[in-house]
From TrEMBL:
The keyword Membrane does not apply. SUPFAM superfamilies: TIMP-like. This is NTR domain-containing protein. Keywords: Disulfide bond, Secreted, Signal. Residues 16-131 form the NTR domain. It comes from Magallana gigas.
Length: 186
């Protein structure tokens, strides 16, 4: 009976704090992050709730070197979305943010072996954080029969089957946010 209580609690907590399966666009993570940089992971300390990483910055694409601390924190094995596990002596493109508790937290990361020059061009020249990106969830079956989102000058609506990594939203010459793609669709 006791095992059943713990099992029920685990299912409840997982349902409440589980990962969001909705589609997302890399630009949202870029705009949410305070820093985007390439780094070589130099050390790793695995804890119960998080993993601390030492790193050497190779290039900075958002933020300044003065404000990047020496330790980076990723989600650990007991987090509902799984661990943010980076390998020592490997290079990554890291999106990170200072959290209210003081931790320098990973928002997202990509192994540099999978990052192309067009990816760097896109994050440095195409992303416009003044534009809002709206994803019409009704296109993906998350909201049955929901009306489509109306376009506006301040926001882009992702097209059906958009490319989450190569897609971007930025203002055109008339000042309206428009959707575009730069690089391979993957």
């Amino acid at each position: 009976m006791e095992l059943m209580k713990y099992g029920s609690l685990l299912v409840f907590v997982t349902a409440c704090f589980g990962c969001d399966p909705s589609p997302k666009v890399q630009q949202d993570d870029f705009c949410y992050a305070n820093f985007v940089f390439e780094a070589k992971i130099t050390s790793r300390n695995i804890g119960e709730l998080n993993i601390e990483y030492g790193f050497d910055v190779q290039a900075i694409y958002k933020g300044t070197a003065d404000n990047i601390p020496s330790t980076l924190v990723g989600d650990g094995y007991f987090m509902s979305c799984g661990p943010q596990e980076l390998k020592v002596n490997t290079f990554y493109l890291i999106f990170a943010k200072h959290q209210s508790g003081g931790a320098f937290q990973i928002v997202d990361y990509y192994n540099m072996a999978n990052v192309k020059n067009t990816d760097i061009e896109r994050i440095t020249t195409k992303y416009d954080c003044d534009c809002i990106i709206n994803i019409d969830d009704s296109l993906y079956g998350y909201v049955s029969g929901a009306p489509k989102i109306k376009p506006s000058k301040e926001a882009c609506i992702t097209p059906a089957n958009f490319c989450p990594r190569s897609g971007f939203c930025r203002k055109n010459v008339e000042g309206a946010c428009t959707w575009g793609n730069h690089g391979e669709c993957y």
